Amino acid sequence: MLRSYARPLLAALLPLLLAALLVACKSESGGQKSTPAASAAPPAKVTFMAGFKPQANLPFVGAYVAKEKGFFTEQNLDVDIQHVNTPGDNFKFLGLGQVQFSTADAATVIERAGDEPPLGIVAIALVGQRGQQGFAVLADSGIETPVDWAGKRAGYKGTQPTPDFLAILNTVGVNPSEVETVKVGFEPQILTEGQVDIFPVFVSNEPDTLRKLGYDVTVFEAAEFGAPTLGLTYVTTRDYLSQNPDIVLRFLKAALRGIEYARDNPDEAIDIVMQHAPQENRDHQRFMLDTELGAAENDLTDENGIGWMTAEQWRELHDYLVEFSGIPAPLDLVPVTYDDHLIRQAYKDGKLIWP
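Given the sequence above, the corresponding structure tokens read:
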């Protein structure tokens, strides 16, 4: 039994002993105060809508991999991945606020800047450092350079021959009037059946399809002739970016990490793609991924990171589109087409900041 005079002393010392014990526990845990799980912020729910059907376009792959490998989760994001039913609808859904992130060709971002009412679409990362489009000819056609396009028949998709087509002709000194142009569909057999001599392609798509059909092809790209073409971008809206910069940065970092993971683990990345596109040919998807990875990297990205972009790139593309009738009039680029301040926050010394 405690003597009566010891009880008051013990009562006085007990709070001090408890305090010392708490200090010791904090010291052993590195001085970090634990936070109850219930106080953590819930994940931000956003929708990413790919600008085409499920396939291995590199920005799509970045999102697929980020979801599958938990990179979005690590950035406290709950991302719903969707795909457009009709190309171009992603812009409408972005403008309505039903979608927060999507993809778009850089030239299309500039072209759509003139929409009325303006949708406020803005590119936040440039994944494709060169354009997606090219022009295929059969290898045994006798067409060795674009100089040989004179007197031939060229197909075009859309409403008119593209700036890429006109720029190539301009560079090699062929007058567009010397080449017959006809509107075509999307089936590359138009080329193999002789309906056209020059067929417009996406360089990561139809050339592989044609080769699998048994036809060797040569593909010409405007970038090879000095045109400042650019490829696919991640986009959001100017309003969403200004209101949610932290969410946009977290999405961007996770998607870019997904691209880096796909670059380093392409077979696994294609496994993930096939979960989204089970009806597609695996070898063709690998061709698409490899081709777009090649177009995503250059000296600029080697130094700064995949997705990097500069004002000079956008200005050159803009002026190029003006020169070759891609847009009807010059635009004030910065407010309506791109914003590079978050891509610059995503990297340090060329390395993605993670987590």
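The longest strand covers residues 44-50. Try to locate this feature in the token string yourself.
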